[in-house]
Amino acid sequence: MPSREDITYFGAGPALLPTDVLETAAASLLNYKDTGLGIAEHSHRSELATNIINEAKADLASYLDIPEDYEVLFMQGGGTGEFSATAYNLVGAWVERKKKAIFGDLPGAEANEPGLMQQLKTTIDKDLKLDYIITGGWSQKAAAEAARLLGPEHVNIVADAREINDGKFGKIPDESTWKLSEDAALVYWCDNETVDGVEFPAFPKCLEPKADGSGPIVVADMSSNILSRRVPVRNFSVIFFGAQKNLGSTGVTVVIIKKDLLPPKLQQPSASLMRKLALPIPPIILQYEIIAKNNSLYNTLSIFDVYVAGQVLKKLLNTYPNKAAGQEAVSDKKAQLIYGALEAHPDVYKIIPDKAVRSRMNICFRVTKGGDVDGSEKAFLKESTAQGLTGLKGHRSVGGIRASSYNSIPMKGAEALAKFIEEFAQA
Ligand code: PMP
C-alpha cells in the first residue's frame, strides 16, 4: 500500500494539498484550538469562524496584492455556479446603469413612467450584450450558460479559438480579430483552460483600463491558475475560482470583486423591475451584494474549507517573501522541466496547444510512440502509475495525457515526471 510520500498526484482537480496543511486540518477536525469541538462542528456564526474568514481574506489580499477597493467573497456552487452568478450580477449592474441614464433619479419612476419603461426595454433588446472569448471547454460552458439564462441574442462570441485551429482548441486568436461589443455588460474569459491546456500569456492589451480607470467590465475564471502568478487585479471587475485546484479543498468558491459593483456604489435592480423587463432574477445565494453584506455568511458556509484554504495561503506567504511572484517562478520552472522533456522527443510526444499559449498548469500531450497512440498512452499511464506518478489521464472529452502541475506539486514531483517522460521515450 503506497503512502502519501510515494505518490505525486497530477489530477486536474481536486488536487494535491500540502501534507502539513492536511495534518493540521485533520487535528482541527477533531478539536479546534482546544475547544473540545472540531472545526466542522462549530457554528459558522461563532467568533472563531468569523476570524477564520477574515484571516483568509486578509492573507489572500496580501498574497495577490488585492487593492482596498476590492472585496473578497467565499461562495458555494463552484466555478459552474459562477458562470451563472457573473451573468446575473453583471446584467443587473448594466440594467441599473441604463435605468439611471434613462430615468434619472425620478422617485417611483419605474411604475409611473410607461414611456421611460418602454425606452429601457428597447435599450435592453437592442444593446444588452455579454461578450465571451472562447478558448476552451470552460469558457464555452460559461457562454452557453449565459445564452441559457438570457437568450443567445444577448451573447456575443468575441472570438472562438476553434475557428483558427481546424475546429479544435489550442490557440488564442489575435486580439486584432476580436469582435468586442460597444458597451458589454461583461467581457469574459477563462485565464487557464484546464481541459485544453491553454493559458492566456498576459492580460489582453485591448481590454486594459484607461488612465481614469474606466474601461471594459472584465471577468475572468482563474479556477485552475490562481495563486500561480501575479494578477493585475485592477484590470478586472470580477475574478473567480473554485478552491479545489490551487487553493484548498472542494467546497468554497472565491470571488474577488470591485467594490464599484456593490452597494453603496451600485444596487442590483429590484426583482419586480427585472420581472417587468423579462430578465432573470438571480437566486439570492448567487447575488454578490447579499454575500458581501453578510461577510460571506448569508447562509451556512463550510468553515472547514475556508480554514484549509487559509492554511495553504499562510504556507505560501511563509514560503515566498515576494508572494505570488515567488510561486510564479516555481510554476514556470516546473512547466519548463516537463515541456522540455516532451520537446526533446518530438517523435514520441505531441504537445497539444500552440507554444505561445501553453498552460503552465495543465500540460496536455499525446504519446505517439511507434505510431500506436492508444497502445502507447495505455503503456505510459500504466508505467507512470507504477512509479507513483498518478492522475495523468487526459479529460474524458479530449483523451491523451494531462499533467496538472498546480501549486502544491513539489519541484521533485515535476522532476520525477520529466525523468519518466525521458525514460519512457528512450525505452
Ligand atoms: N472553470 C475551470 C477553469 C475549471 O477547471 C472547472 C472545473 N474543473 C470549472 C470552471 C468548474 O468548476 P466546478 O466543478 O467547481 O463547478
UniProtKB/TrEMBL annotation:
Pathway: Amino-acid biosynthesis; L-serine biosynthesis; L-serine from 3-phospho-D-glycerate: step 2/3
Record keywords: Amino-acid biosynthesis, Aminotransferase, Pyridoxal phosphate, Serine biosynthesis, Transferase
GO cellular component, one term: cytoplasm
Cofactor (UniProt): pyridoxal 5'-phosphate
EC number in record: 2.6.1.52
Segments forming domain Aminotransferase class V: 9-103, 121-405
UniProt GO MF annotations: O-phospho-L-serine:2-oxoglutarate aminotransferase activity; pyridoxal phosphate binding
Transmembrane parts of this sequence: none
Keyword Signal found: no
Pfam hit, one: Aminotran_5
Enzyme class: transferase
GO BP of this protein: L-serine biosynthetic process
Catalytic activity: O-phospho-L-serine + 2-oxoglutarate = 3-phosphooxypyruvate + L-glutamate; 4-(phosphooxy)-L-threonine + 2-oxoglutarate = (R)-3-hydroxy-2-oxo-4-phosphooxybutanoate + L-glutamate
Family recorded in the similarity comment: Belongs to the class-V pyridoxal-phosphate-dependent aminotransferase family. SerC subfamily.
NCBIfam families recorded: PRK05355.1
HAMAP family registered for this protein in UniProt: SerC_aminotrans_5
Protein name (record): phosphoserine transaminase
Species of provenance: Emericellopsis cladophorae
